[in-house]
Amino acid sequence: MRALIALAGITAVAGCVAAVPIDRPSDYTAPSTLNSCRVDLPQDWKDQLSRNTTETGSHEKVTVVAANENADVTLVKTTRNRTTELVLRDSKKRQQVMAVQNDAQLFDVEFDGRWVTFSTKQGPSDGTMTTYAWDARNDGAPVRIGESGAVVHNGKAAWSDGSGVHVYDLAKKKDRIIGQGKEPVFLGDAVLWLQDGRFRAEGALPEQLTKARPGTATSDGRTVVWTQGDALHGWREGWTEARELAEIKPRTEGIVFPRVSGDFVSWQSESSYVTDIRSGATMHTTEGGYWLEVHGGALTQQGWRVAAVAPLSALSPLSRC
């Protein structure tokens, strides 16, 4: 992949790839690679983000990495003085989840409103990953659950490794293997995963997904989104067929790091994009300092020395072209 993918590290673990994005300076922009409906960043989105912005010093990095469905509970990763700390924040408390030192990395943070999963490794070149789960309702220490990045939904975590696709009941501490493949995602209470370029499922696969040829996939539990060639596709229950959500020009770095939450999908292709599923419109961040992602019920902004979060429920829909 081209250097503009800007990865801090890509580490192959049991056939899976864990990618860690890094910051870009506030004046960084990239030409739009979009080949479908494009709109500008709405002013109300800027206003909402400005209401909850954290300015950081040159010696530190602050990133909002997860949120609950209302965006009033967030997980924030802070790096300063060679210590990286993951903290849960709400209106009443600041609670440390874990801290790592020196070159150790903490990444792949996911949150279902109660359970947090995340991974660590000792350095950028370290091929050994450790994945933990932490219960936000209790004050206990994180518990190791595996060695591959996990997704979490309604009290269950899923991941893949050399043994297969795991589904782990976090309250019962019970693990089971449901198949062979990679990149599991939740769709309701069911788990889908990728195998040989197709979706697989423990039970019946929705008919609308049988013809999909996913390159990578993500889900918020309601909507599954995947890359297929130079396009981003999605499907949710109630749709008679899968839909193409966005398309990029060929011969670019492709679509990477897709995330979906509600009616919004964030993704990257040399810079960041947000697609509104309802209108089919996509916003490309041409302005410096707007590196946007969706996490739970939040739109998060990452940039050079700035971090911000806004509730998705407060954002206007993107207009149709």
UniProtKB/TrEMBL annotation:
Keywords per UniProt: Signal
Keyword Signal annotated: yes
Domain of life per record: Bacteria
Signal peptide: 1-18
Name by which UniProt lists this protein: Uncharacterized protein
